[in-house]
Amino acid sequence: MPETRFRHIADRLVSEYAELPPGTKVAGEHEIAERFGVGRAAARAAMQELQRRMLVRRIKGGGTYTAKRIDYMISADRAPSWSRTVRDAGAVPRSVVLSCDPLDLPHDVAVHLGRAPDEAGYRLRRRSFTDDLPASWGDEWVPVDVLPQLPTAIRHESSLHEILRQMAGASPERASSRASIEVASDEVAEGLECATGDPVWLVESVNRDAASGRLLCFTRRWIRADAMRVVFELGGSVPSADAPG
């Protein structure tokens, strides 16, 4: 298969998909092979090229969709709220609660929260979406004494940030954050509806109350790299390349 053939197909599809809104389902390999009169290998290579450019997102068992990769901004002056961060980036957020279980805090989580191991806590597990496509999956650990009503509250309000504000009287802010690029394990791939081995961001954060400094929750979140670009902002803003020197 000449290398230029699949790239030509990919370039044609790029111009077409640019006219479609994010989250639009597009043709699969079979339809592309028929349309361009090529074999499945060339069609597959063209789709893989679009994935490499992060212009489409493949959902395991659900097909291929146009994608708009957004920035997930992490900074000291931004609220540690998933939904607000996604909206500020111009996308539509949605989260689905998979479980909210009372569990003893694991040792590593307890260390992050300055607690003794095996203290009572809640593990809130959620899958989150941008423009109705899976983007994030992971856990938020909240000590029971911080928010005893969490299992009830999460049924009525999907934002943990808002629940902490309204029911715990807290003003959540980031105490610490770290991010790394990892490969999706079987469990993470199932949560993100991607393929095992796909690149994913792992973001771990501790949030505290701005007024008292009390540690509120620990988040361990995996994010699809084809859905978001994790960006840390430290200090002042960086001047644009066009700014006078």
How many DSSP H or I helices? 8
User: How many discrete domains?
Assistant: 2
Distance between the termini: 50 Å
Q: Enter the CATH topology name of the largest domain.
A: Chorismate lyase
Q: What integer value in Å does the Rg equal?
A: 21 Å
Task: Return the average pLDDT rounded to an integer.
Answer: 90
Overall strand count = 11
Helix amount, in percent? Answer: 25-40%
| Helix-strand category | alpha+beta
CATH superfamily of the largest domain: Chorismate lyase-like
Shape: elongated
Parts with pLDDT < 50 across at least 5 consecutive residues? none
Q: What percentage of the residues does DSSP assign to strands (E)?
A: 35-45%
Looking across the biggest beta sheet, what order are the strands in? 5-6-7-10-9-8
Oligomer: single chain
Largest sheet data? 6 strands, antiparallel
Describe the structure.
- Residues 3-69 form the HTH gntR-type domain.
- It is a single chain.
- With 245 residues, the protein is α+β, with helices and mostly antiparallel strands.
- It folds into 2 domains: 3-66, Arc Repressor Mutant, subunit A (Orthogonal Bundle), CATH 1.10.10.10; 70-233, Chorismate lyase-like (Chorismate lyase, 3-Layer(aba) Sandwich).
- The chain is built from 8 helices and 11 strands.
- Strands 5-6-7-10-9-8 form a 6-stranded antiparallel sheet. Strands 1-3-2 form a 3-stranded antiparallel sheet, covered by helices on one side.
- A hairpin with a 5-residue loop joins strand 9 (199-209) and strand 10.
- Helix 2 packs across helix 3 (40-52).
- It is elongated and about 65 Å long.
